[in-house]
Amino acid sequence: MDMVRLHYRIGEYFRKRRMAKFSKLFNINHDSRILDVGGTPFNWKFIESSPRIDLLNLNPSHVRARDSSQNMSFIWGDGLDLKFPDNYYDIAFSNSAIEHVGTYENQRVFASEIKRVGAGLFLQTPAREFFVEPHYLTVFIHWLPISIQKRLLRNFSIWGIFTRPSLQDWGVLP
Question: Which range has the worst mean pLDDT, 46-50, 80-84, 140-144, 148-152?
């Protein structure tokens, strides 16, 4: 099984459970208006009630619309500067995006903006304390200094072993 399919299957298992809890917690229905900052259609296939969803990304053309439906809109925007009035959405949602905005200050601004535009808020991020780093499906690597992480990613992470990324693709762990 290739890395993409493995990551998809693992993600599907956990996201299905998370989205069921989300749906129950917020009583999601077809009238719910949701802003998903940094998301894709993937999460929303687990919600049966077909709420109205706006998927906001820096480059929405890179978001795969494979799982999208008629109740979704793709919007260009920056989570650090949301162009919506206060409480414009019933729920502002973000799943594992805040750790990608850079500095602690940017994370604070991101959280503040999402909180501002949603009457309800669902903001999720991987727990740094958990031993598996979910982006690379590798144990303990996110606890190491970044300089060491970068040297180990290609040959000692599930992501690196399966995808054999070039130097340009390595990036830095969130």
Answer: 148-152
Listed range (48-57, 140-149, 164-173) with the worst mean pLDDT: 164-173
Query: How buried is 157 (Cβ within 10 angstroms: 0-12 exposed, 13-18 middle, 19+ buried)?
Result: buried
Please check whether residue 64 is in contact with residue 47, taking contact to mean a CB–CB distance below 8 angstroms. Answer: no
Q: What's 45's domain CATH number?
A: 3.40.50.150
- Which residues constitute the domain of residue 143? 133-169
33-37, strands of its sheet edge to edge: 72-76, 52-57, 33-37, 89-95, 118-124
Place of tokens 């019933």: 90
- Residue 44 sits at φ, ψ, to 5 deg, of -80, -10
Q: Model's pTM, two decimal places?
A: 0.76
User: From start to end of 58-126, where are the E strands?
Assistant: 72-76, 89-95, 118-124
- CA-wise closest residue to 56 among 23, 87, 109, 95: 95
Residue 174 lies in a domain: no
Domain count, the chain: 2
> Residue 17, exposed/middle/buried by CB under 10 A (0-12, 13-18, 19+)?
exposed
The whole-number pLDDT of residue 168 equals 59
Same domain flag for 145 and 88: no
